[in-house]
Amino acid sequence: MTDRFHLDAVPIRLESCGKTFPGGSRALEPLDLTIRGGETIVFLGPSGCGKTTTLRMIAGLESPDPGGRVWFGEEDVTALPIERRNVGMVFQSYALFPNMSVAENVAYGLKVRRVERADRERRVEEMLDLMHLGAFAGRRVDQLSGGQRQRVALARALVVRPRVLLLDEPLTALDAKLRDSLRLDIDRLLRGLGVTAVYVTHDQGEAMALGDRIVVMAKGRVAQIGTPRDIYHRPTDGFVADFIGAMNRVSGQAQSGALRLGRGAFPWSGPDGPVELLIRPEDIALAAEGEEDTHLDGLVAAAVFLGDRTRLVVETGDGPPLTVDAASRSGLARGDRVGLRLDPSRLLNLPQP
Amino acid sequence: MSVTARLDPQSRDSLRLAALLAPTAALFAAFFLLPLARLFVIGGGGDEGWAVYATILTNRNHLDSLIATLLLSAGVTAVTLAVSTVAGLFLVRHRFPGHAILVAMLTFPLAFPGVVIGFMVIMMAGRQGLIGAITQALTGSKLVFAYSMTGLFLGYVYFSIPRVILTVMAAAEKLAPRLEEAARSLGASPWRVVADVILPALKPALLSAGAIAFATSMGAFGTAFTLATRINVLPMTIYTEFTLQANIATAAALSFLLGLITWAALALARSFAGSSVAAAG
Question: How far apart are CA B193 and CA B175, in angstroms?
């Protein structure tokens, strides 16, 4: 990647940006958020959580409720319509112009900006080469595969040197294998260009792989903002914990400074009474039934072979079944009995949503 | 064993296709090709012989009538497309109380015969018409244009709008809002979005609806007949040659010409729009 393609890293600031739709339904509670220049921020959440509304507000396709402000660097862009914000957008449905060739699609933004023809053609060619689309310049859009179309859409959005790149579920329409390869392409591109990017998805895998920071959203509110590691290892509530990755629930009994969980006892500082704790599958170790230091015994109710590992569902006879990962060659199968050892330092005690 | 079983699969398929096409082909021949051929022959069977086809194009009156009809139909098509595209897009994108009733009312003119349309034009712009009364009150002189080309033009636009507006609305429903957002994100003004995204997407629908509006205006008779006096369009000329002057050969030759020109216009539109006109028209 050459320096020529390096874009300005413009910080973005949302200032109490809420959105109430006509009819009174609240799509987004007032939100304050600063996106650092050059940062890739991912809005993650189930459908209807307000992530797309937030993206569209940054784009200028929706305006915030009165009092809300959107800043691009030092410029207040709240009143600017999208066509004057200089943003790049990539959509789930590609949204390529069907009446134009690949090169004409990419050239469109430059043509609108009245960039001189020679300059325009050079920049389009460079961008197509950067996206490995050089051979397709003259093709019609409907002659391309989904992955190629989305690369054209990226090229079209980036060639105008936008202040921010906005991606609305760009990989959702692709099949799994293409999704992985294009995700790597996007990652490489965003790091290389240094452009501020806002990425909306409902897929936690994409969010983890691409985001410098992730904003987990639920029901129009921000549930947690943090790096992928923060969000995964230190979720602040049960919703985030359940939404990102697999999570187990185990119940224990607290009594005078100790928490009894199966056969184990852990130091406990909270009040006495029943306690529900969360733990990730990878923080539960498998052992033979009844082996020393195990906390729980269980029966393998289901074993799903995933290639690199086998995901087990283990019934412990106390509370919901637990999800545990076994090594690929462990040979454990439905009906086997196992012992479970919980890593006490990994047990999470979170407020429930 | 049947005859077809002995043929190779490909000829069997062609045979089956021919059998399936036969009823349509018979109808097409009986009600289109034969009458048209007959018309062509009758045209050449008058006193002048085949020279009539040259004469109608050199006869001042006929040529004027042909040009007037073409200009009228082209004008009606252009104005109808402009009005219906704006109205159709508006109706698809805005919901308001009475929306369904308004759309239903816009399709009203489809049900009227040309005579009624002519009658309505007279009520509005005729000697006793609404516009006449208003201009009389305001300026002292009565504005009357019902019995002219202007009146005919208005009547044709009125009954062409529903056909076009319904086609435009159906096409506008299918416009992808993301395409317009993509164009805007790249800096396109609302007008550019119309020119670069909306109109190209509506093009097949506009071409097919325009072709229908054009063909209908070329051949419409009832309205012209009602407004009569000073109007010289091809269907009227044919009527005059046929009934009043009993000049059957000329009438037939003119009819053949009218059909030919309209067909050519539709074929032209079809070649622009790909196969979409064939489906719609």
Answer: 12
